[in-house]
Amino acid sequence: xxTVVSLxxxxxxxxxxxxxxxxxxxxxxxxRQEGRLDQDGVNFGRYYNSRAVEETGATxxxxxxxxxxxxxxTLGEVAVLFIAALGVVTLLGTKQERKAxxxxxxxxxxxxxxxxxxxxxxxxxATYIFAHGHLTPxxxxxxxxxTASGFVLIYLGCRGRSVGPKQLSATESLSGLVFVMIGLxxxxxxxxxxxxxxxxxxxxxxxxxxxxxxxxxAIGLKVSSELGSIVGALAGEGx
Amino acid sequence: xxxxxxxxxxxxxxxxxxxxxxxVLVKSNLVKVIIGISLIDTGxxxxxxxxxxxxxxxxxxxxxxxxxxxxxxDPVPQALVLTAIVIGVSxxxxxxxxxxRLYGHYGTLDLxxxxxxxx
Amino acid sequence: MVSPIILIAVPLGLAFLTxxxxxxxxxxxxxxxxxxxxFNLVVSIRLLPRALQSPIVARTAGLSPPFSIHLxxxxxxxxxxxxxxLVGLLIxxxxxxxxxxxxxxxxxxxxLLLLAGATGVVLTGDLxxxxxxxxxxxxxxxxxxxxxxxxxxxxxxAKYLIQGAIGSSLALVxxxxxxxxxGTLSMADIASNIASVxxxxxxxxxxxxxxxxxxxxxxxxxxxxxxxAHSSAPSSISAILSGIAIKAGIYAVARxxxxxxxxxxxxxxxxxxGLLTLLVGEMSAFSQSxxxxxxxxxxIGQVGLIVFALGLASVRGVEGALFLVVSHALAKxxxxxxxxxxxxxxGSMEISSLHGMGRKMPVSSVCFTIAAFSLIGLPPFIGFPxxxxxxxAALAKADTLFTVLIAIGLLGTVVEGAYFFRIVQxxxxxxxxxxxxxxxxxxxxxPLSALVPICVLAVAxxxxxxxxxxxxxxxxxxxADLLDKAAYIRHVLGV
Lengths: 239, 119, 495
Fold this sequence. Notes:
Chain B is mainly α.
């Protein structure tokens, strides 16, 4: 009964979607074909692509959009991940509900050594990704996710070892505070939150684009510690 | 051919969303419902990215070889999708931990049996 | 010159600080949300006079409005921000004593983030930013509903989470659709260009957005999660959810329908849906025996009345809706807070176990009675002017449809009166049941940390009820902020 009703509903929605999509032009490609792309009221990224380098100094336009033009969204997103980490630890961490720790079977020597060898390389790669976020594809979130995959490797391969939950919690709080502080300093100095108050520098250099690399480092640390604590809580480590 | 070519991204993303919606509505195992939510999120993200796509466009990153800004795709949907993926992951993490605790309390993940709170 | 962005940035920063403090000390994190909300209250009140004259448009990153995120702190946004910080402050003080050792600093960080998200929702002027702050609000409420880890809490959190996640995805599809049509995300920019696309595109995106944001705003078919979630959460969380979170959802829907779309045509539909919500809520509440579930259904009913009043689309109607928003937030928060300790003393949430509390916990019972009478709409309390405004606005429309609808709405109020009188009668005139609750030796009044916010709320309800001019002075500008689309666009983009 429920299957039939749901299937009819979905078929109706699908037909509606196809009918409407064929009549309503949606997207940048459609706008380009209609010639609307260069009009004044329509944006579709033209403004950002042409002005981002001179306004923010970052050659990765997506990075300047994420941190500068829409920086408040990024702050909100970082807060959402913080909420998830807190929520997961709160829901899973109650001591009395947890069964006694099972005997942890050690992984074989090859797996163990391989994981130990790979882990610092993964961290190095992740650091490269978020340090160069303003120049090449990448950035804080991507680098943080790669670091978290390194943590998953440790939980899976080197069983019994874990990253300390208190250190992760401290890292995520501190880097969050750094992000908000940079924004407030921008507010105090220039009158608008998240103002890019450091000098632009020369393009294509590592230390360029004002506060963007600093914010990306803070985001990278925060995301890696948050994803690490989520994965750790789900894997059964607790306080 | 022209319709399919222009709209293949949109059709694909809506297909994913509808499949995810079907899973959420019909399946009774909580983990399958969570997978359905994840499918819906993936479909929505794909839809958002396709909105900014320009044919023969290239990534919005300036490098040493000169690229005209008109050839680049729109960077804003990519920033939106970054945020949306992170929000989706957060919801997924919370949902999985809720599922773990729910299993601990009820001993089953069948949503038809988890009905303590009735009218 | 203070920028409204600190109303969001400072609570976010302090929330990050709370977990850090939790690592260092056990006692400090409890006080951080109260401090943050006191700060917000002071700043909001200071910014309110300026916002009343003309909306403060705050940019971020030093770049100009349609291309960067901007906050639009108009009279409506500032008024709601004052309400959020006031109610948030009082509930934070209550939670200092109410939340025991269990969740610790994480509860307080999540609570502060919920309030920061709500403040962000009412202050922003950008569509995707609205979505992000809305998600902060929703996800922290999912975590807070389940934070005690007990069986009903986890079950409610699961249902709430699934429905909320689907709603958010739908809203995101709507936002993607709008971006695909217009190429911009600023609400003022979309509003000024809305006439240039076909009605079908407008309809699809509006349906998606209203459904997505309406899940949190508890509009009729989308509110299946609410009775479970609000009744199984800890009392302070029920209070903040019923008082503030639903209002933020309704604000998001109202801002989109009125300002971005300016759609007068669907407002009749909105009014009918609101009335349906009212009826469903009140009828369901009447048959409940669990006090918190009853209060949750009553919230649904009141939200239905607010949506109905918004659907009237006249200045008087919107003013009435806003007045009702304030009065319901205060009254419902007071109801949940006062029953919090009563439930703890009695050991159960059944109404029959609360009989006789009038003698054992006199202050809490008096405040409960004040809040209940205010919710029904009796004269010396704050509920009366609100309902009166809505009724006169509906009659002023001189349309038989609305007269019939408001008559049905009054029926809902009568039902509401019936069940609240039954509870109050039970509190004072019936004997406590045989067999003590789980805390037999403590038949005393609630501790001071709970009594202070309860009494402050009760005094506010009586004070504003006696002279509603305190509130109505600001309502005219706030209603105009919502209804006058052209003025909004002019303030953000024009000069």
